[in-house]
Amino acid sequence: MKLNGRRESTNVEDRRGTVGKAAGMGLGGIAVVALLTLLMGGNLGDVFQVVMQNAGSQTAAAQYEPTAENEALAKFSRQILASTEDVWSRYFADNGLGSYRAPTLVLYTGSTSTSCGQGQAAMGPFYCSADEKLYIDLSFFSSMRQQLGADGDFAYAYVIAHEVGHHVQHLLGTLGQAHQQMARMSKAEANRTSVRIELQADCYAGVWGHYESALFGSLEEGDLEEAIRCASVIGDDYLQKKAQGYAVEESFTHGTAAQRMRWLKRGLNSGDIRQGNTFSLADSQL
Q: How does pLDDT run across 25-72, given as a tens digit for each residue?
């Protein structure tokens, strides 16, 4: 991708080097945690451990220095977020969807607190509609390259655009409706609905890519292939087979490799979110 000279979003919280909830906890915060620890059956030793963990977290934050690669990825992420702001603001305005409210990108290391619970790097990038923020530990991109063989700037951009796709779902009301329905479903039914949510976000990521290319001419030869390759190796079937040698369809929550590639391509080719109505199709049509 050609991003030289492109602006960087300011809707970013940089929490890198801050360890989880404990970091930055003042004496009042320690007192509250200590009291809760005692009330739940803990002892003074447990309280001391909380205090020491807090001190260690603050020390880790003070000593943290990002690598050059990490800094480059942070800049890249800010530029891609800025692109999604430009694309979706224009798309909402041109299609009578109202004013686009941009999400906040949170960069963190290891773990961090969110309005949806504690976020962990092992979860991969995720979006929380309760605070309208997307969370990324930048080490995920290294894991993509080393463990899945998915590499390239447009592959990384697709990951960010997919999470922004969830934000678009949230703004349009789709995400909230789906989550309400899932709360009343069996586990298997909820998983199938989750697949529809994720495939639609893939399509929306493709819609972003369509207009990113049209508006800025930033895509280069091989970029689309990078994103499609990435979609193929983060399919539930591929990941399960890689991890355990077989796949269990009933447990899929994001869709198969073929499905993820298909819906990403649909968005890339059409540039139309109406082409991403995964909820109107039978399972066999996904």
A: 444 444 444 443 334 344 444 444 444 444 444 444 457 788 999 999
How is residue 50 written in tokens? 């909380």
Residue 127 included in any domain: no
Q: What is the pLDDT of residues 153-170, one digit of tens each?
A: 889 999 999 999 999 999
112 lies in a domain?
no
Domain identity same for 53 and 146:
no
Q: Quick one: DSSP state of residue 122?
A: G
Burial 178-203 (b: 16+ CB within 10 A, else e): beeebeeeeeeebbbbbbbbbbbbbb
Full domain range(s) for residue 258: 80-99+139-285
In a domain, 2, yes or no: no
Rounded to whole angstroms, the Cα distance separating 61 from 102 reads: 28
